Amino acid sequence: MADHAKTPLLTVEHLSMRFGGLLAVNDLSMTAYRGDITALIGPNGAGKTTVFNCLTGFYKPTEGRITMHRNDGQEFLLERMDDFRITRNARVARTFQNIRLFGGMTVLENLMIAQHNPLMRASKQTIGGIFGIASFKRAEKEAVEKAEYWLEHINLTQRADDAAADLPYGDQRKLEIARAMCTGPELLCLDEPAAGLNPAESDELNKLLLFVRKECDTGILLIEHDMNVVMEISDHIVVLDYGVKIADGTADEVRSDPKVIAAYLGVEDEEVDAVEHEIEETAAEARP
Ligand SMILES: Nc1ncnc2c1ncn2[C@@H]1O[C@H](COP(=O)(O)OP(=O)(O)OP(=O)(O)O)[C@@H](O)[C@H]1O
Q: Cα(212) to centroid of ligand 1, in Å?
């Protein structure tokens, strides 16, 4: 079981999302706790990205309530908010399955543009920013320092002035996470961050996510198919199948849950033992 002594960061209550005749998410309730890496897993089409789209304002859920509990005690009902307010006020940031960097801009510019909101506030939304009013200069310095901090932590300081599109794939993934972190999120939602990474790059990703959890007071909610990443770094795992939550617990609990095994193998619960036995036998035969 998840540790309920922890403080909730995101609470999802009875969330449903219907597309015509398809119930993509069906009465989902779950909690992501502060200081945790929570993974949302499940077979293809289980509804994981739809959940992300509901909580980041891309879809308005058919039913349900999604509450973000900020560190300062404020609470935000995300299903009622526009996407830009979810980032700016509720402090939820996300990345997408497909990399969405500004490829023609430099690595540093990608990190600066993520800090547009505080810079605009500091300029007081006037031309004063251009003429260098003190509050803008201070905010600009802080934005550059934050960008430099993240460049250092993703080992891209040397490539700060290169176009983002010229980076190797694994570095682009890390840059996306750094860009999301530059918005100052309290919850970071990552949609398949390990997709397309080789084992060494996945390893680096794990280290980056563990660093975010430890150093930044940012909870992470992660959709991921790479079970090495999920099982190694998650504190808490929620499993969806056909839009329904079928398991919720620690990596050890979820790994051995027959419902989860059945969902991943695409068989009914009662067939799990037989299939597991078959897999073990096949593996034994394959051994030299
Ligand atoms: N905008 C939409 N309109 C209609 N159906 C949709 C829409 N978005 C998602 N779906 C359907 O909802 C179901 C859940 O899709 P979703 O992308 O959330 O699954 P997923 O678990 O993220 O899958 P994957 O692991 O393959 O990314 C699928 O059957 C999908 O076809």
A: 28
